[in-house]
Amino acid sequence: MIPLRRLFGIVISLALLSGCWDAKEIQNIAYVTALGFDYVDGKYKAYAQVLNFSNIAKNEATEIGKLVPAWIGQGEGKTVTESMSSLYSTSQQRVLWGHVRTIIYSENLLKQAKIQNIYSAVNRYREIRYNILMYGTKEPITKIFAQKSLLNFSPIESILSTPEQVYSQLSLIKPVYGYKVIADSNEGGGSCMLPSLAIDNKTWLEDEQKKPMLKMNGAYMLNNHKLAGWMSVEDLKGSRWLDRDLERTLTNVPDRGDPVATVVLINPHNAITPIIVDGKVHYDVKITVQAYLDELIESISEPNLEKETAKVLVSQIRNTFNKGLTIKSDVLNLEDSLYRSNPHKWHKLHQEKEDAFLLTKDSLHDVEVKVHFIHGGKYKSKM
């Protein structure tokens, strides 16, 4: 039997314990998973995508294919912070920003060069991390946030939040994180590429009903935080060959007209060399890439296929460079090589020319591509 004095001490101790009086149940918190921003009539508009984590948590009771609703909040204010904070008054629950994985900017906001204001304000929230995906879009942000993934999976399982799953199979436009966008915009050489999201209504059906899906349809080019223009996926094909993080992509050979083969290309390596002649800078580009045969339509020898594939890559690189010139954007990031190897010359050229864009049609000099085939797929390579 516990002595009365000891029992009294235990009761007093328990009474003094504070416990977790302010603890909140997981289902009673509004977890923001994506943010969107627009700028209309002198005011910022903030959009918050909120998902019910109890519905999307992966466990044995999860019903695959069950529709998972996305709640979308809309705020407005004269400042970025005011537009976000205006959501609190009607959220009914505590709003948590620590799970934000994506930020989307409207094209209208990008045109008014407000991206730096957004990023600066958002990063002052201690809950929000730096490694957040960034996109631009021509679509209404509410429609983007409402899109589901295949089999009615939540937006968490779409390219909105996990684009790496698609990029590992088809590397066209590289996903970018916020810190990279700002770093590239602040650097002296090159432009920043901000992927753009669109809604595709043609590719997928659920039975006979069309099911819209998100896709990357191009990218916005930013120079010093200002919008230079937009380029489509077709326009940007050449830029992927200078991306050292490219995992896997394919091309027809030739890429125009009737192809003789389809090849998959991996592990590209590049070297950009600035050459100064009579005060003008030209750039030589050398690329080596591995490839394997994915489809053989007509008989062709391996050496000839390597040469023809190299021609395709050279053509795509020059086409992307020329498309970039039309919007005064260094899509291939050529100037970065001069900025790093000879910063004194780079600064001198920009001081001499009022127009900060220095590239001309003659700036891209020699483009050399070497393709090495490593295998022919499951079949032996008989070309």
UniProtKB/TrEMBL annotation:
Family listed: Belongs to the GerABKC lipoprotein family.
Single Gene Ontology BP annotation: spore germination
Protein name per Swiss-Prot or TrEMBL: Uncharacterized protein
Topological category with respect to the lipid bilayer: Lipid-anchor
Pfam families linked: Spore_GerAC, Spore_GerAC_N
Spore germination protein N-terminal domain mapped to chain residues: 22-198
Keyword Aminoacyl-tRNA synthetase: no
Localization in the cell: Membrane
Alphabetical keyword list: Germination, Lipoprotein, Membrane, Palmitate, Signal
